[in-house]
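Hi R.,

As promised on Friday, here is the backbone we talked about, encoded as structure tokens. Could you run it through your design pipeline when you get a chance and send me back a sequence?
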């Protein structure tokens, strides 16, 4: 899969505008921290690892322009509070290259990108071992190349398992309200030729009753006890999977682990513009003035998670990430 979410081009960051997919392929040219912050906030780039990478390159833009790295880091950290990878990437770049100049900042960002790509491949290898032969797999949101440095986390496991001949079919939840499953995961699966069907989010329960063997999802933050924040709707899938006796697996790089968070109750949950629910592509689908509640994430208790796959190993309950 050759698609990438972003790439550094000489003196700016090119960001594949995921809001325009799959209808058109449009690249945004980010030349300032504010450009990158807007791209993250507006979800032109999304997925926990990918927004961490974008933020790291945002610091390179700040260094190139002679702006304050600490001010730039504060601005970027405020864009999306749930994904811990964002803050992790910013802290790492600042600690490595605060006083070293543009070339050092850029090198630190590129190193994070290279490491994330390698981590995704390792996640795919480890996770594929859990996938049964002939598996019918359910996933939510987009966790592929578009959400990471390459290959993907949950979708990376699917890709690796498919390469091993284990995957019979994938079922991708549409993932309301931003439709990352319908727009992005479906597009990636079609690019790879992996057999799949797109489903309405509400069809997941009935499918689990008869047609699903394995559920795999990504993560935006994992607390010390394994409680996991991921795209809204993940918690419901975990409850359904437990009811139907189906393995429910979380895939994420170690940068998603947050040992400082004892459990999921303290994870900040981003609330987004209610119009994401009341409108589709700017067209109103609800009564004028309709109130809406739009959290972007929910938290799945670690007790419902069969395994958490990182680049280092497959973790099994009880989860204790305090020393990671």
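Update: got your reply. Pasting your designed sequence below so it's all in one thread:
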């Amino acid at each position: 899969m050759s698609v990438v979410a972003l790439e550094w081009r000489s003196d700016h960051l090119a960001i594949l505008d995921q809001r325009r997919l799959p209808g058109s392929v449009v690249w945004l040219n980010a030349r300032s921290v504010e450009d990158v912050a807007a791209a993250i906030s507006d979800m032109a780039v999304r997925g926990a690892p990918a927004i961490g990478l974008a933020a790291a390159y945002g610091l390179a833009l700040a260094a190139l322009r002679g702006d304050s790295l600490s001010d730039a880091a504060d601005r970027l950290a405020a864009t999306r509070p749930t994904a811990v990878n964002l803050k992790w990437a910013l802290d790492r770049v600042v600690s490595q290259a605060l006083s070293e100049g543009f070339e050092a900042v850029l090198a630190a960002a590129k190193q994070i990108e290279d490491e994330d790509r390698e981590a995704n491949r390792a996640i795919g290898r480890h996770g594929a071992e859990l996938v049964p032969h002939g598996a019918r797999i359910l996933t939510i949101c987009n966790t592929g190349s578009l959400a990471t440095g390459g290959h993907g986390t949950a979708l990376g496991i699917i890709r690796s398992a498919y390469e091993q001949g284990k995957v019979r079919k994938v079922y991708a939840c549409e993932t309301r309200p931003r439709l990352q499953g319908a727009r992005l995961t479906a597009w990636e699966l079609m690019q790879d030729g992996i057999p799949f069907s797109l489903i309405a989010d509400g069809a997941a329960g009935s499918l689990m009753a008869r047609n699903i063997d394995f559920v795999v999802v990504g993560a935006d933050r994992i607390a010390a006890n394994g409680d996991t924040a991921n795209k809204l709707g993940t918690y419901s899938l975990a409850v359904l999977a437990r009811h139907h006796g189906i393995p429910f697996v979380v895939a994420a790089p170690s940068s998603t682990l947050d040992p400082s968070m004892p459990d999921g109750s303290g994870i900040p949950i981003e609330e987004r513009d209610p119009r994401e629910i009341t409108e589709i592509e700017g067209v109103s689908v609800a009564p004028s003035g309709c109130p809406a509640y739009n959290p972007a994430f929910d938290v799945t208790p670690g007790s419902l998670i069969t395994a958490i796959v990182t680049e280092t190993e497959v973790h099994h309950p009880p989860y204790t990430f305090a020393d990671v």
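One thing I noticed while checking it: The chain has two domains: 6-120, 131-315.

Thanks again,
M.
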